[in-house]
């Protein structure tokens, strides 16, 4: 997979990572930072997806996604969010390993191009969000996505499975962080599909 082929999963990972902006499943809101791209990626009632990739030499690679029915076009968006953005599932106990303690599954299955399917097929754990840590996937300490479960490859009773965790209680253009490969640009319209765009340099 070259850098262009990696642009779409990279952009999707960037959009999904907005879950870490304290997304609240009960309210559909975060901590004031962007969460709309994350919501669009996982919105349950969206049934169609169109993606575009534009490579601009000397500028970057741009990824756009259009969803339908458009989640952001609903006037009662926040009321619908709890039924459409379902609680993230937690890892199996044998895969619940902090970033500093993770060991690569093998020399071939490494970030940023390893896929969850490849990792799980090797009997290892996959996680690129580091939900309980102040670590981002684009940081050097956040690059171990495919890692050995406790006990070694295939020793987990269900490495590819996850357990459900309950939803937490209620409580323009952006630039890429240093070291990031993607910058998300929300351009949601009240009259049309959500259109997250990402520039990958």
TrEMBL record:
- Pfam families recorded: Trefoil
Q: Where is the P-type domain positioned along the sequence?
A: 93-150
Spell out the residue ranges making up region: Disordered: 153-201
Instruction: Write down the InterPro entries for this protein, in alphabetical order.
Output: CAP_sf, CRISP-related, P_trefoil_dom, P_trefoil_dom_sf
CDD domains per UniProt: Trefoil
According to the UniProt entry, which residue ranges have a biased composition of type Low complexity?
170-201
- Which superkingdom does the taxonomy of this entry point to? Eukaryota
Q: Which UniProt keywords apply?
A: Disulfide bond
Name under which the protein is recorded: P-type domain-containing protein
Q: Which organism is it from?
A: Exaiptasia diaphana (Tropical sea anemone)
């Amino acid at each position: 997979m070259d850098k262009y082929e990696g642009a779409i999963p990279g952009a999707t990972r960037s959009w999904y990572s907005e879950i870490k902006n304290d997304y609240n499943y009960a309210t559909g809101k975060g901590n004031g930072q962007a969460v709309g791209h994350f919501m669009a990626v996982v919105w349950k009632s969206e049934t169609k997806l169109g993606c575009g990739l534009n490579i601009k030499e000397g500028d970057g690679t741009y990824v756009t996604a259009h969803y339908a029915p458009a989640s952001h076009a609903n006037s009662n968006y926040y009321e619908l969010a709890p039924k459409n953005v379902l609680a993230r599932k937690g890892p199996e106990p044998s895969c619940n390993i902090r970033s500093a303690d993770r060991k690569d599954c093998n020399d071939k299955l490494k970030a940023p191009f390893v896929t969850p399917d490849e990792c799980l097929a090797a009997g290892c754990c996959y996680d690129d969000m580091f939900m309980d840590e102040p670590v981002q996937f684009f940081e050097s300490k956040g690059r171990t996505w495919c890692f050995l479960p406790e006990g070694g490859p295939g020793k987990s009773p269900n490495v590819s499975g996850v357990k459900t965790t309950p939803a937490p209680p209620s409580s323009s253009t952006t630039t890429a962080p240093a070291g990031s490969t993607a910058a998300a640009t929300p351009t949601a319209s009240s009259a049309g599909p959500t259109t997250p765009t990402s520039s990958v340099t």
